[in-house]
Amino acid sequence: MFEPSLAVQRIVANSERPSRRPGPGVISLGSGDPDFETPEYIRQALVDAVAAGYTHYSDGQGDPELRAALAAIASQQAGSVITPEQVLVTHGGSAALTGAIVGVVNPGERVLIPEPTYSLYADLTRMIGADPVFIPQTVDFHLDLDAIEAEAAKGAKLLVLCHPCNPTGVIYRDDELQALGRMAQKHDFFVLADEAYDHIVFGGHPFTSTLAIEELRSRLIYCQTFSKTYAMTGWRIGYLVAPGPVTSAAARIHRTLIGPMNSALQRAALAAVTISSDWPERMRVEYEARRELVMELMADVPGVSIRPPDGAFYAFIRYEGNTPPTEVVSAALDSGVAIRGGTEYGPTGAGYVRVAFATDRKNLTEGLLRLRSVLAVVTS
Ligand SMILES: Cc1ncc(COP(=O)(O)O)c(C=O)c1O
Prior knowledge:
The protein is of the alpha/beta class and 380 residues long.
């Protein structure tokens, strides 16, 4: 009888990440896959690249021109020079996270995870036999710096931060990030900052990239993806920026696991970041309208509350009562709407479900009406 490896077993035993997409007739408010098509100029760049012969193996660390463009963008954000050698182009943001975690952390070492947060971080940590240390965030889902300090003092290799945060929508303040940087220096750990949603910020809320936080600079592993900003989830391209030796370590893992990236795809990504376009902003404006719709449609459900997200395209919905989120998810699916349970994102997610507003307003409205009925029963 076949038994999957312990790595697989550790993930399966602990992860609530769904492995299947919802069936027909179900409105999906579960997945963070933008409903927008990838902008035309990026699609055309792929066609052009294939025609121009970008059909061979590419540089193992990523197309040099793309890395140069990404280094220039990162340098601008940081206000200091970041070189192309510090950039690794990856198979989506997911492989940037994988390269970073597997390249830096050893089995048995501790990875600090302020939660609720994106669930892949804990899965990857467990996959390699390291220990995720969940640290509940404050009531408004900001960093509990005292709790982080207490855990860091016991020893930690890495802390993982999602900024803006999926699922809470929180954007961390500069003073929190600066304090975190000082702590990372004091207790000698790295900070992996996943900024997948950095272009999706609402209401003019201030957002500072971790790249610009001087206190973090020497210990920062910055992970980014084209998936959300450019509606490119299916293309599978992202990148990381880190101190040179860390980038080399992540590159070795990425090369071992995946090999070089698709050549033509990287030329399309180069077009995405070098051709000026209002598409990312147009999509952001639409997400902002959808955010208002979610807040409006869920406002008067008794026993239900939402902290308006500052960024990303998720509403983390709190409901009263003791029903586990997995049961709410299942009841919602029976009513024709796919959502995600709060505990997928960490223990503090008990009493929450997550709704993605990455689908059009008509579907979103119908999905939320279905969810309202479910939550009315759950909280009664
Ligand atoms: C915070 C965060 N990071 C990374 C990813 C993965 O991105 P990609 O699709 O580029 O692998 C996601 C996808 O939902 C995400 O929400």
